[in-house]
TrEMBL record:
This is GTP 3',8-cyclase. Gene3D superfamilies: Aldolase class I. The keyword Lyase applies. InterPro entries: Aldolase_TIM, Elp3/MiaA/NifB-like_rSAM, MoaA, MoaA-like, MoaA_NifB_PqqE_Fe-S-bd_CS, MoaA_twitch, MoCo_biosynth_MoaA/MoaC, rSAM. Keywords: 4Fe-4S, GTP-binding, Iron, Iron-sulfur, Lyase, Metal-binding, Molybdenum cofactor biosynthesis, Nucleotide-binding, S-adenosyl-L-methionine. NCBIfam families: moaA (TIGR02666). Its cofactor is [4Fe-4S] cluster. It catalyses: GTP + AH2 + S-adenosyl-L-methionine = (8S)-3',8-cyclo-7,8-dihydroguanosine 5'-triphosphate + 5'-deoxyadenosine + L-methionine + A + H(+). It comes from the Bacteria. It is an enzyme of class 4 (lyase). GO terms for molecular function: 4 iron, 4 sulfur cluster binding; cyclic pyranopterin monophosphate synthase activity; GTP 3',8'-cyclase activity; GTP binding; metal ion binding. GO terms for biological process: Mo-molybdopterin cofactor biosynthetic process. The lineage of its organism: Bacteria, Pseudomonadati, Bacteroidota, Flavobacteriia, Flavobacteriales.
Amino acid sequence: MLTDKFGRHINYLRLAVVDRCNLRCTYCMPENGLPWIKQNDLMTDEEMLKICSVFTDLGVDKIRITGGEPFVRKNCISLIENISKLNGFTDLSLTTNGLLTEQYIPQLKAFGVKSVNLSLDTLDEERFFKITRRKSFDKVMKTLESLLKHQIKVKINTVVMEDQNTEDIIPLVQLTKELPVDVRFIEEMPFNGNNNAEIVPKWNFPQIYNHIKDHFPDIEKLKDPKSSTSYNYKIPGFTGNIGIIAAYTRSFCGDCNRIRITPSGILRTCLYEGGGINLKEKIRSGATDEELKNIIINSIHHKPKDGWEAEKQTMNASEIHQSMATIGG
């Protein structure tokens, strides 16, 4: 099993299959998009499968497919199918914005995808357009409906932004009354692709929680699973649950079990880490599986204690403020 110098067991790989996205969310990237990774610099399907296989050999038993938007990648569904056939892991999941997802849901179910994180920052069609700069609200809601129909666990990810969608917090909480979904409110982070935009969210974990508690005084704390990024709650009598992710204040780093691979093959041991080891180039240079394993083991040994330490080590504003699409979800 992979273990870092703090004794944390690393068993969760987040694999970004593409940097491109068909939305332009204000908290993620500029309106005109980003300088996308050139095709030759993206990992091939074969390289991704090789990396996943090496990680599962090292004890990783959970793989999440992220982006960008995964289904913007050509034949992404075939890649997911092939990953699902690898030995050694038990949990395959996906993060998506839902625009292209609905048509693939029966296949995802057949491949053993256990849960899907669906990005949805508002239940209002007009605000959806203002935040995402795209008129695709209906597609996301159809994806949500189909996921529930196929009994795939759904976690709705909502980035809370002052003066943009705070009025959606309570309606989203109300969504859990009848639906078996987890709605997770996320502190806004600096990964917006704009080097000049310093993010210090007013709507942090305590503010979000107190706002919910004002409307639902009987809110109950749930026991958080090990390595959970969210603090989890339930309204008595409601079907689904609520979570709050302290993504900016980074209070969940203590038992982090995650590692990331960017679309270009960069191994990143922390969301806030700059640089990293390019596993794709190692593969293209002829590295064996054993050599890749040694590189991964050494990298994880140097995993930072938390996101603050990782950001301090980065010392590069362009890396701190890069888009989440380039980092890998």
